[in-house]
Amino acid sequence: MDAFERKLLDQVTLDAPWELVETFSRTVRTLPDEVNRSGEMIGERLRARGIPVTLHRPEIYLAVPLSASVEAGGVTHRAKPPTSSLPVPQGRTAPLVYLPANPAALRSYSRDIGKLFGGSIRDEAEARDRVAGKILLTEGFGNPAIASLVEEWGGLGVIAANPGVDVHWGTCTTIWGTPDLDDLPRKPKIPMATVNKASGEALRKVAEAGGSATIRSELLEGLFAQVVPEVRIPGTDGTDDFVLLHGHYDSWDVGVGDNATGNATLLEIARVLWANRAQLRRGVRICWWPGHSTGRYAGSTWYSDAFAIDLDEHCVAQVNCDSPGCRWATSFHDTTSMPETNALVTAAITEVVPDAVVKTKRPKQAGDYSFNNIGITSFYMLSSTMPDELRKEKGYYDVSGCGGNIAWHTENDTLEIADKDNLLRDMRIYLLSVLRVTQPELLPFEFTATAENFARTLARYAEAAGGLADLSPAIAATEEFRGAVATLQRDAAAGAVPAARANAVLKRLARLLVPLDFTTGPRFTHDPAYSTGSLPCLAAAAELKRHEGTMRGFAQTQLLRGRNRYVAALREATRLVRFADG
């Protein structure tokens, strides 16, 4: 850690951030008017510290849960409707069928029925036969993958039994942000409700006895003007390049761990960076999003759309800040990072926490990762969390935030979920990580690691396909790119390639490779909200053995087209790198 980094980290205090955490612990931020008042609060605190802030007011689409219940066997069970579930205030009644979920997939965003249901159904045909015309009961949270599959199978509704005594809010739409005309057909056409474990067990007995269930739900839906606070801190290198640091400020109820602590982190980093702006090489933009919870990332999606060309030309990285500084969150074994930033985030965390064991993981199609289709290098979503051993000791199940506290997405996410010491530590980690992108003359992204990840993925797909697929052109293109980018990064580090030229190439590489690894749709659109594996354009290779006859031919055609996309992108990346290395 150099002297400038140390100086800025020493300036971080809890004074302003903790005041915001305490204020938000008394401030519900779910309904549109509540969210707007909270956005104004953030703006007031920034202005009070002399930091210029723009309060954008876009109209974004929200589907806010109001109430729900499930009635079966003469008993009415407490429930919550996930966002974007079909409202059925008069009720929808149908026979109840139970399919056990794979426990490892409780918070999965995958649409793989083997992963979701753990072998309890063999294939799509069996699923349709068992679910069509019925309400499905299964374990898990509000899940867009399950909701969309049940709708495709002809099901009439979904009841998700949460794993504990609480009922968690969630979402069930695969639409990312405000829908466009192409997205609208994916708007959920069936209701979904979540209940707690005890209700789930009671409902299972009803299903096994051949009974029916009734789902009732109400939601507030429409376009709402919502406040998006944005701080722009200029850099001094004359390029207009910037890092985007961001997190959502809407919440379920008062949402302290998810995400008042993140809002406070952004506030403090804005204060420190603004005070030291004359020494920043690259700029920083800091944004607080509405519409994360009730709009499926509608705030960050709006920003991605509204400033798409600016982001394309000048954003060198996006950094998501969700649920830092929570109680018992002392581990970094679940740190989100793209391959090219793994070394950066590992080094930043271990410099702040020398004994930390950092394990990085692939970003899910979740959080406010609304920038993948543009192609922006990204890191962090959830950072610190409680150790697995402690979670098991407490009997906690796996959740997607709040540092592993099962208060996540419930009314229990209150002030005691925040931890002052952990928050101070995490603010410093975020600040140092951002500085590690703003300050070096040469951008610190290691695309050799991306190439190596591609090579491993291709090897896995080739092995799974056996002799049914020819991935050799993709493997050859990967090896060629890996050698070329390794040479460029070595020469740039040695000063043989001007940093400005190398940086332009590294930005462009992200625009090519991030969409290839994380998206299926075109640039400047938004993929559905379910996760894919690495290199989804080639993922059909792993499924070829499952198909027979005509279906195998269709799958091989899909793979051939995906291979063409992949090879063309890697060859373009190689030409770009070699031209820069001149």
From TrEMBL:
InterPro entries: Peptidase_M28 (IPR007484), Peptidase_M28B (IPR039373). It comes from the Bacteria. This is Peptidase M28. Residues 232-425 form the Peptidase M28 domain. Pfam families: Peptidase_M28. It comes from Falsiroseomonas bella. PANTHER family: N-ACETYLATED-ALPHA-LINKED ACIDIC DIPEPTIDASE (PTHR10404), VACUOLAR PROTEIN SORTING-ASSOCIATED PROTEIN 70 (PTHR10404:SF46).
